[in-house]
Structure formats: C-alpha cells, structure tokens
C-alpha cells in the first residue's frame, strides 16, 4: 500500500539542467520519501548498464553530509531510486543535494538542488535506517585521528618523564658491582654470577694438513781433510799383518 507514494521523479535530460522544484523531507519518514531519477540523453533513455549512481547531500544548518548509493530500477533505461537517509532528516532546515554517475573511472554530476527538511508537528520519532556509509567513514577517520593524537601526547609525556629521571640519576662501578643513585634512592647489584661447572672435554680434532717446507738453512763451514799418508804405505800394511796372532793355533 502506498508503494512509491513518497517518491518524487526527477528527469535529468542534460548535464547543466536545473533540477527539482519543491522537494521536502521529514524526520518521521522511514523509507517513505525519496527520489526516482530518470537519465536521458538526446531525449531518449540513457543506457547506464555497469554505471554507479549516487545521491550526495549536505545539511546547511547541521553541517552533516553523506553519499548514498542509489538502487537500480532499470539501468538500461537509466532509472534509479533512493530514499532519504535518516542522517539527512535529523534536523529541520535546507539540504543541498545532487546526483553523480560514475563509469569506467569517469564521473559527472547534476547541478545542486534543494530539499527542505520540515519539523514533525505531531511529535513523531526519527527514522531508524541509520547513518550512511559516508558519514560512518568520516566519523571513524576523525575518531582515529583523536585516538592517535591522544596516544602521541601520552607517549611524549612518558618520554619527558624518562628523560627527567635519566638526567637526575648517576651510576658507578666497583669491579662487577653497579651502584645507581637517583631521586628515589641508591641501589647496588653484583652483576657477576657464580662460576659454572667445567664443561665436557671435546673430541680431538682431525690432524691438520702438512705445513709448507721451510726455507733452506745456511751452508755450514768446510771440514778438514785428514792426513792418511801414514796409513797408505806398504810397510804399514806388512807391520799390521805381522802383528796379528796366528789364529790357527788358538782354540775356540
């Protein structure tokens, strides 16, 4: 019942055409009011197959803004629809809006037109369809900046405190004993631990390679030639034989 009753049809026939007349929205609407866009080119329906169409808006008084993807009715006929998001209708006042078509890395948008958000006379409740993806992304981005800034401030304070403590502290060594004196007092610690047990003797390593031949030594002094003239005569030999005992007369 009343399907499409709150939709206002807008025909976009040329890039610079002025759109819209009296467009209104209400915080009491929940997917009640919206816009149905028909895109034409040269008087005929524009084939927008594969294109993405968005509804862009910015509330003049509240400063909120959003980007809503439009739902395809028949892309081949250039027909798309969008219902006003709750974020746009949270406060009464004027809203600047426009459509944008993107395809193959290119985009084109309509001229801006105005939607007036009217108050709820009977005290109705706001729509509950939630914020747009665009607004949620902006809020997450801004929240991340705040968190990052707070973390940086805390880190800077901690660094300053550490620097102050380091400037007021002194250290001295006595053998292996370290003594530190700071604003909080003096403390010492022997940093030499007990001697460990002797380890197991390792296996004998492999025999090393034969070393290179050393340099040749210097030549020694020349020796003296003995005088053998007394032993080389015939008389010497005869005397030696005569002095021998006749071995045949000896008993063995």
TrEMBL record:
Superkingdom per UniProt: Bacteria
Against InterPro entries, the record matches this protein to: BppU_N
**Any Pfam family matching the protein:** BppU_N
Stretches assigned to the BppU N-terminal domain? 30-138
Stretches of Polar residues bias are at: 213-227
Coiled coil (UniProt feature)? none
- Give the region (Disordered) as residue ranges: 183-231
Its name, as the record gives it, is: BppU N-terminal domain-containing protein
Organism, as annotated = Slackia heliotrinireducens (strain ATCC 29202 / DSM 20476 / NCTC 11029 / RHS 1)
